[in-house]
Amino acid sequence: MIELVGLAIGAATVACLVALVATRRRRRMAAHPSPTFVFADLVGYTTLTEELGDEAAATIAREFRRTMCALSRAHGASQVKSMGDGVMIWAPDPGAAVALAGQTVSEVGRRPDLLPVRVGVHTGPAVMSGCDWYGGAVNLAARLAAEADPNQALVSAATRSAAGTTLEQSLGPRRELVLRGIARPVAAWRLA
Hints:
Helix content is 47%, strand content 26%. It contains 6 helices and 9 strands. It starts with a helix and ends with a strand.
């Protein structure tokens, strides 16, 4: 009986700690009304799942998620969620978000135990609900990731402008992209 009570108290303590961390995270995120969103997506994941099976694909997705979570923390960002072979990351600093995108391409995209990666980065206002984000800025970051070539990151004009002189990495030439669901062409730069 004592063991069951101890387990119940332990579970309640863990639940309280998880709720506390989530509350702090929401407060931190809410303090930045115009954050930068980074989407990263593994290229070829569906084909890999067909070829190697669900277990092998799940192992790769877990390692990708773990790696991206660590990289996000190293750049002062937070992983909002993972969607199988992709992740959505929130960053308060656009320069740090671009550095995260560059490191994702240079390190994650070239690892033999993972797959090539596509990354999209966009800065703008969005709506936070719970621990998730919604809105045009989120959609645009996701569309940029979908448009990127394997092992490439695309950075929006808003992020380029917001990063200003803190942009540590060079950008390729400006491109005008027509993105699915976006009414007007979007200016973007390839992270060099």
